[in-house]
């Protein structure tokens, strides 16, 4: 199984980025910066978690 990290720019909503060891910080642990506006990229982990929670159907009655 291969795990992919999807980044999205919070400013211009672009998905193209470059990484640098000089850009690593607490808020940007991967050092990913948008190539268009140079903003720190964010991951879409919270959206993936919400989507997987919707896919799990819990049945409470028989």
What coarse outline follows from CA principal-axis ratios? elongated
* Helix run count: 1
Question: The biggest beta sheet, please?
Answer: 2 strands, antiparallel
Rg, Cα atoms, Å: 16 Å
* Rounded mean pLDDT score: 82
Domain module tally: 1
Uncertain runs: none
Please write the string of helix (H) and strand (E) elements.
EEEEH
- Give the percentage of residues in beta strands: 15-25%
Strands across the major sheet, in which order? 1-4
Helix content: 10-25%
The span between the termini is 35 Å
Number of strands: 4
Structural class: alpha+beta
Protein name: Cold-shock protein
Organism: Enterobacter cloacae
Task: Describe, in plain words, how this protein is organized in 3D.
The protein is α+β, with helices and mostly antiparallel strands and 62 residues long. The protein has one domain (7-55). The chain contains 1 helix and 4 strands; from the N terminus they run ββββα. The strands form 2 sheets. It has a two-stranded antiparallel sheet. A two-stranded antiparallel sheet has the order 2-3. The chain is elongated and about 55 Å long. The mean pLDDT is 82.
Q: Which key phrases capture this entry?
A:
two-stranded antiparallel sheet, elongated, YmcF-like, two-stranded antiparallel ribbon, 4 strands, 1 helix, Cold-shock protein, 62 residues
């Amino acid at each position: 199984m291969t795990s992919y990290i999807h980044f999205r720019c919070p400013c211009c909503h672009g998905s193209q980025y470059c990484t640098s060891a000089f850009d690593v910080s607490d808020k940007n642990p991967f050092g990913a910066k948008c190539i268009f506006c140079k903003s720190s990229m964010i991951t879409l982990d919270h959206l993936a978690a919400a989507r997987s929670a919707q896919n799990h159907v819990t049945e409470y009655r028989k």
